[in-house]
Amino acid sequence: MNLNIPDEVKGLLSKFKSEGFGIYIVGGAVRDLLMGKIVYDWDFTTNATPDEILKVLPEGFYDNKFGTVGFVVDGFDKPFEITTYRTEYGYSDNRRPDKVVWGETLENDLKRRDFTINSLALSVHGSQITVHDFFDGQKDLKNKTLKAVGDPNERFQEDALRMLRAVRIAGELNFEIEANTFEAIKTNASLINKIAKERIKDELFKILKNENAYSGIVHLKESGLMQEILPELVKCFGVDQKSPNRHHIYDVGTHLLMSLKFCKSKDPVTKFATLIHDIGKPQTYRKSTEGFITFYNHEMVSTKIAKNIADRLRFSNAEKDKFIKLVRFHQFTVDERQTDSAIRRFIRNVGIENIEDMLNLRVADRLGGGAKETSWRLEEFKKRLIVVQKQPFSIKDLKINGKDVMEILGIPSGPKVGEVLEKIFEKVENKMLPNEREILVDFLSKNFVENDK
Ligand code: ATP
Ligand code: MG
Fold first, then answer.
1. Bridge partners of residue 25, in order along the sequence
2. What domains are defined for the chain?
3. Residue among 374, 382, 385, 310 nearest 352 (CA)
4. Closest listed residue to residue 64, CA positions, set 82, 78, 47
5. Does 150 have pLDDT greater than 60?
6. Rounded to the nearest whole angstrom, what is the distance from the C-alpha of residue 157 to the centroid of ligand 2?
7. Which atom in ligand 1 lies closest to the alpha carbon of residue 27?
8. 453: pLDDT confidence band, cut at 50, 70 and 90?
């Protein structure tokens, strides 16, 4: 077998073996190696106890109660992680073992892993590489199948997070979830509520980050997990938005899914915002007697729901801020008659750092509604965004500052300085003055009289 195992990894394996310990590469690393993918995350399992591991690797650090020793290796982004064999343990809360017991054998360690493709181990003897496969993981790898190790119902009841991991990993690898495993997710979906929201958010963000986020979210819906995690989104499916002579081709939920599918951003927050941008539509749905459907103010209701979701899933402040802005302003107007200051207000509202993703959301929204990627109006708007950004936005962008005002007018620091700058800014914004230092200095010294000081 010809696998791409780095020398550093081989070195670590032989170090343990020369001390008389059994050691194997395990988990995602084996899966990814056998699939010919690049491995970022090297995990090992051994019969050495944490103390013994630290004797072999004195520079290692023992960092948690699961008996994992981390070991930093030059040239690798993530530390190697070496864990003592673990074995079956009892669960009573659907999320974590009551106690961890060190295992006696490799097989027992692999048996408690989540999916067959994650329960493979590799050992290396000289140039010979051996795959240890107790649960037909290689077959499932070949068939592109994600299957629980053992009884899927039991496994999901032990640890409900595995259900989300199933959706996430199947999406990342483009695998099918095996029928019994999928049925078991449907049966046990409500147990996901026992899992800490931070962990749910992490998995959800990984699902979204993936290029094929669309199919992950479809799995989430079909498995019943979406109903538990994002019930507001489930409500959007079946909400019709077709009016006579209007272009909407999908119901709200399908439109949201399609928008995600077309979203070009790689940022999970942007993809999430794209997925829920119309989530307030069910609450604002009105149908006139002529059959016209409207959703007045839906972006405000969507924003409120977005806030709830961000809080519920424990977004960071920065993530929440961006998420909410993208949803709140997704209906932004692109009209050639807009004034510069309207465009500037838009940029201020959305945040200059979020403009690109705001446009990504707009394009996704268009494509997800069956429209063309762009329009001449949108292209004009993009050009004006660039032009307007070259003009001053705020007092900070003026070519003179508070210090200049104090020096030229001979006044001390205080609110007056800001007021003077404000007046100058207004003139620059209204194109009555150019933003050129010399001219502004000249203007300042000539036009501000004693009572301005
Ligand atoms: P990736 O690192 O790409 O997310 P991975 O499979 O390496 O994928 P990790 O979270 O790094 O995932 O976990 C390493 C290994 O630990 C997994 O391959 C699996 O064997 C096992 N594992 C992780 N989480 C669980 C769990 N909740 N239940 C059972 N086994 C698990
Ligand atoms: Mg991993």
1. 44, 122
2. 7-138 (3.30.460.10), 144-229 (1.10.110.30), 234-388 (1.10.3210), 395-452 (1.10.246)
3. 385
4. 82
5. yes
6. 22
7. 18
8. very low
